[in-house]
Amino acid sequence: MSSSINTIYANWASICASSTDDASSILANAQTKAETYFADMDSAKDGNGQFEKEFAMLLAAMEGPISSSKSTNLSKVIALRYFYGGLQGINSKNHSDQKFSLKFAKAFSKMLLSLCGPIIDSEYNLDHDISEEGNADIGTDDVRDSSMLCVSALLETPLYSDKDDSSISERIIFRVRLAQKALIKRCASLEDCDDDEDDDFDEDDKIYMQGYSNGAPTEEEGDMLSGLSLLPRAKRSLCFSVLESCLTGIQSEKNTKSIITQFCSVHLVKFCEFSATCLIGETDPRCLMQMLHLLSNIQILLCPLIEESNKKAQIGTNDVQVKGFPHTSIFDAVAIYYPIRFQPPKNDPHGITKEGLQKAVMSIFTFASDLMFDPTTSGPDRDRINEANMTILATGLFLERLSPPKPYDPFGDDNESVDESEISTVIDRLEALEDLSCLLQLEQKSEVSTALKKLNTTITKEMSNVLYRCHDDAATNVASAKSEEEKGDWRKLADNCRSFITKVANRWENLMNQSPSDDNLKSCWEIFVKDRIVDLVGLISSSPQSSKGRMGVGYLAAFAAAGTEKTLRLCIDGCMPRLLALMSENIQSSDETRDYEKTSTVIYSASVLFSSSQISVESMSKLGINIHPHPMQLYAEDIIEILCQTIDGIENENLNPIEIASIKALESILPSLPKSIINDTSMIKDTIQFIAKLLMSSNTSQLSKVEYEWKSSCANLLGLTIGNAVHGASQMESGPYTPILQVDDGIKTFVNSILLPKMIESCSEFKSDEESKIRYDWIVLNAACQTNHSDAIHSVISSLFNSLISSLQRVKAGNNQNDIDKSIATAKALSKLLGNENEQVIATFHSKNRESNLFNILSSSPNTSDRNEEAMEGMNCLLLPEDRERLRLEVKSATNLSLSILPSMLIVFRNGNDYSEELEWCISRLSQALPPLSDWDSVELCTIFPVLSSILKSDMKLRTDQLQTLQSYTSDIIDYALGTENPPGARSAAATSVYYIIVGHEKRADACLGIQVLKAQLCPLISTNMVTTSSLDLSERILNVSDAMNLVAGIGLACSQRGGSSAITLDEIARYFVLIACEGAVKAPTLGVDAPLDCCINDGGNHIPTTTIAAKALGSMLTNSSNPFVKQRLAHKILPVILSSTVNQNSTLSQTKIGILFCASYIINCLKLKAIGKENIDVLISILVNGLEIIIQHVYSNDCDKNETLDGDLIPLLLSALVKLFNETVLAVISHIGSIVPSLLFILITKKDVTDAPINLLSLQILSSLASSGNDAIIHFCKTYKMTVVQHLSESLDHPSYEVRRAAMETANEWSLLG
């Protein structure tokens, strides 16, 4: 024995003799020492056999003592940890090529297996499952677990054997047998063990193979494995790790690329079945994930080995039983976990998710070996070699979940009950269809998608039937769904079914083309495609108008859209002649005998099939496949002729279903109708002209639903015609499938010279708001742009833009009302097209606008020199009265025109684009127009500010020089925003510009731009207007204070958005507002209010409601802030002021009392109650309830006139806060319900105007919450005062508002049912 091994043995002996040290540290130290020793061995110096020799000496030294019944558990565990550490050292990457001999590994494993099983005391014949005295944390289970660790490490250790031919197979057999034996012994109890049990690998192989034919595991193994479920999760995971280590060891053997023997193959099949059995019954998601990964790796590693071995074996020999890879066993073990229902708990540290488990399960189901035998193989050997492959098994599982429930049979067994949990929901079916698509590789390219080859005719027939029934059931449920969400899910399922069969039909025919001699593929295609199409054709021909017939049309269209010639021709040639015959028969019949429903359905069906055929033809054309003749060659002209004759025969607006179906069919067919299959194109041109004439001459007011539907289809058809014809006019070449609308000269000439100009001209016609609700000219041009042909979009947008520019230029030249109306009408039409968010449309508009700046024209003065001079002089110059009036009207007209057109145009400024040119224009014009020195400067600013604010809102990144320039204008922009003489829209845009300028202020600056403008402008302005010596009248002062405070609130929001140094500014603004609102006085040197400012000064009985204005401004900050941390910061600043201000409050409704109520209500409504705190909530509730009583006492009871501040703002806000409190923390309100309920009833009996409906509804909602509360104290109160409340509620049943009457009735019913 070497000196190092002696040292290790001596350490072990000394440790075993001592029991004072901590067991965990002892075990770790033992494992580390052995691992370090073997890892540091020099393989070049010591030689290959030295590892086995050294380890054998260690084993020989310790085997005797640890096998003795007198050895302690601790000594055994320490020895096993030495072994484990040694194996880990040998298996380290430095010695990955060093091996044990197979003979030594078998000997070592025999000792380990003896320790894996129950440890029997020979004296009492008992398993010592108790800990020993002095080592309370070490028991026999620890010995068994340490043995399993050693087995796991041994399974990963590289081995060698003397033989050359079958050595690899012998080593693989050893590994799989060792893994199975170790697992069985670890799971066994004392009752499962025999006294004379032997662990000899060579002796039990014969017995092992004899039991193989009965399946896996054997009865004995099954009894032992039943103990697996009784082990704790960590110990089960250790057992599964042994199987993983076995697979790792086999992987190292597989790298030699040798073919294993048939005998070894049978052992591997047994191992696969054994591993699958271990999964059954597993409930812990961590172990489940571990085993799913193991089974997936087994498929990847062992399936090719087994199948390659079977492929090379001599079929028919009796020496060994040939068995294929056990797909069925693995499937049966995994299938019980599908579908995954697991939902991880919150804050799960293990990272196991539903998606992860689903992915692991699907990786097993989607496995397919390249060496898998053809499922169509015939002969006696197929059943022995090929079990059902995983693709077939998983397909059956998914179809079971996808299949709709069986229809109710009234004559069936009444006692038969159906478990509702087993009925698949629409979501289940959607997921099953997605999984089936993944299994069959339908999302992959057809070149690599071969999963369909694995299916046989039986499963194909089942798949065809299930999909058809599922589509039928989904389409039926779309009509009967109770909610829009449910209807959307059913519609999605029907769409996905059609998409699925389209892909399957495409893949199957492509596979048939690649393997024309494959009879299985041909049979499957005939079952799935041909047989189904034949059934559908018969159904559609007999009753197309039935629900089954309509669903069949959609299903058949899905086949037609598969993009393969054989399937397409089968659909068209089978169905189209019958549909055409039905169309001709009914069209030629008299009105009395004509079946309108059937004929219109046939027309729809023909158009759907035609569109689907075009999808297939175009998809094949993109692949370079040009089919000839065209599938619709024999039918297209007859169909078009029937449709055109039907439409041309319309004489009035009393439309029938056939005429509506005809125009919809043309709308679907014409855009993709190839000219090559139409001989006479004149009828199409004539029909388009007829439709255009009929549409533009018709009345658009008071249309029925049928008329609107028909005219919308006409407009869409004309738009598609324009889009394609304009596109065709710019194309130099055309192909065989180019649409007729793009190549026919007559149609293109009509569109470009007549139809498009007429539509552009129609868009410039001004109509009233009622008439503009339905503008078919807008629909036409919008449909033209939706074709996404860039030249068509350019033509439409350019024509409209040029028309708008021309109208505006005429307005500037003559200020004619007709030109003004045309400009507004054209702008609305252009806005309609821009609002559809078509990128090409918006890009074309910007391109045209940069050529002829629309905004510059809007902001320019009239084009006469004398008017320009007058404009420079302004309104204050000495002008004759008639000249002054004319100039005033021109300024007013220009302002109104700008404000009328701009909202329609500003939607073009969207996020993510560059508007540098437009921004440069705004900045350059601001430098000339600010401050406004003339009336035409103000007109120009009415255009500049809306454009500037829209650009800034688009999140375009500004250059530093641009931002600095805008910041230099901030003071003038604020003055404009506060100017009451300026248009409200422009003022609002200016305020928005200030917001974004402050947000974009350089964050590295020491000072916040917001604090600068507050101190220099806004706060002094507010202070000035609150002084009674101001020369302005009271209404102007109130307006000035209100506008200024609202702008201060906007700046506060900008500071919260900017963060950094601006956070202090936000705090100061919040403090400023809350002091004014709650105390009526403020001093804020930081904001420029150096001396205390009294905000509640009466001016001859009149006063500025400063507290209310400040409270509303503060509320706007809380309401409009989307950041919860900002809201919490604001609450932290303002809550102390609110709470302290209530100390000296009396029962009068003072200005400060109103301000406090506003602030308290905003706090409750805008913040989460947890963020406010329970103690603060209690105080705020008292404030609100007391305030509600004071309002009732001093206002409503005195029959005061309607107070907008109270009725329109404060009371609804206060009641909303109470509603929130009742819903979220009813216990805090219990003590106040005696005061709240009388106040609510007083509101209900006194506020009976329609405008008071919000107050009434909120009051009723609170009363309803009380009646439905589960709190005993509240219910007792409600029962006590039930009659009084119901009596007062009866008065609200006569309220003029329907919503109030309904809510009052429901609330009265709830109170009446109490007790």
From TrEMBL:
Key component of the cytosolic iron-sulfur protein assembly (CIA) complex, a multiprotein complex that mediates the incorporation of iron-sulfur cluster into apoproteins specifically involved in DNA metabolism and genomic integrity. In the CIA complex, MMS19 acts as an adapter between early-acting CIA components and a subset of cellular target iron-sulfur proteins. This is MMS19 nucleotide excision repair protein. The keyword Endoplasmic reticulum does not apply. SUPFAM superfamilies: ARM repeat. It comes from Chaetoceros tenuissimus. The keyword Iron does not apply. It holds the Pfam family MMS19_N. It is found in: Nucleus. GO terms for biological process: DNA repair; iron-sulfur cluster assembly; protein maturation. It comes from the Eukaryota. Residues 231-367 form the MMS19 N-terminal domain. Belongs to the MET18/MMS19 family. Keywords: DNA damage, DNA repair, Nucleus.
